[in-house]
Design a protein that fits this description.
4 strands; rod-shaped; Gyrase A, domain 2; 6 helices; alpha+beta
Length: 275
């Protein structure tokens, strides 16, 4: 047999539970369009801000690109000017080198007019110069150091100590009345600024018959007088080297010996800052 159980407790008042009632008032319903409108307005505002920001950034970027193009144009112009300045500097350097080379040529000149004037000033009475010979020095290129070995380090003093440039050798010979006159002449040459004192030396000196001969004019006398013999003379040979001092360092001596043209050129180059 089947039994039917029915719960009638829910029908009793003391067991009835409170059922929530719908709240009356202004509740939102699905049919209210305001949330949709508010969301759409917010989306439009956000999109407007994004679009405005994009347009602003695009405008700023365009302005920056224009400024960059302007700066690049100015930079290109400045680079051209820099190249022109560098070219001018190179030309100036070339001109200075040429002027320095020309000044070096003038500075190495010791005119023979000045040297002969110096001989005439120094030569004692009774001493004669018969012949003068000049020999140019042999210029030998310095040997290059081997590439495998490192050159030892030198201090600034050793680097500054450059050996003097070799100068021409002057040898001259003549006659004198005595050895003392030759000795005096040698000492004067050693103290002359035109010559190197340590390289001025007497090569030879010896007494020889006087080359001068006396001749008598025609006479009606039947007796021919005796012709006296002149005293012997001393033949000598002296060798020296020109001073390594440049003409710019010998201006007073050159001026005193009449080398005015060379002195004027060197003074002009000195005024222009070449020396």
């Amino acid at each position: 047999m089947y039994g039917l159980d029915i719960n009638f407790l829910n029908d009793r008042p003391e067991y009835k539970k409170d059922i929530p009632k719908p709240v009356s008032g202004r509740g939102l319903s699905l049919e209210d369009p305001r949330p949709i409108l508010i969301g759409a307005a917010v989306a439009v505002a956000v999109n407007g801000l994004v679009a405005g920001g994009w347009f602003y950034l695009n405008r700023v970027n365009t302005k920056l690109q224009a400024d960059l193009d302007k700066l690049n144009a100015e930079l290109s112009k400045l680079n051209t000017q820099i190249k022109d300045i560098e070219a001018i500097k190179e030309k100036t350097k070339t001109f200075k080198a040429e002027a320095k080379a020309l000044a070096t040529v003038f500075d190495q000149i010791k005119p023979w007019s000045a040297l002969l004037g110096e001989f005439g000033t120094l030569i004692p009475s009774g001493v004669k110069i018969v012949s003068i010979e000049q020999k140019e020095p042999k210029i030998v290129a310095p040997a290059a150091p081997p590439a495998s070995k490192k050159a030892p380090k030198r201090d600034k003093k050793e680097q500054a100590a450059v050996p003097p440039k070799p100068t021409a050798t002057i040898s001259f010979s003549g006659t004198a009345d005595s050895y003392g006159q030759i000795n005096d002449f040698l000492l004067l040459l050693q103290n002359s600024p035109f010559f190197q004192g340590e390289k001025t030396k007497l090569i030879s000196a010896a007494k020889k018959p006087n080359p001068t001969r006396l001749e008598l004019q025609e006479s009606r006398s039947t007796l021919a007088p005796d012709i006296p013999e002149l005293p012997q003379v001393v033949e000598y040979k002296i060798e020296t080297n020109l001073s390594p001092l440049g003409a710019s360092e010998l201006l007073p001596q050159l001026k005193s010996q009449g080398a005015i043209g060379l002195v004027d050129r060197i003074e002009i180059l000195t005024q222009k800052g070449v020396f």
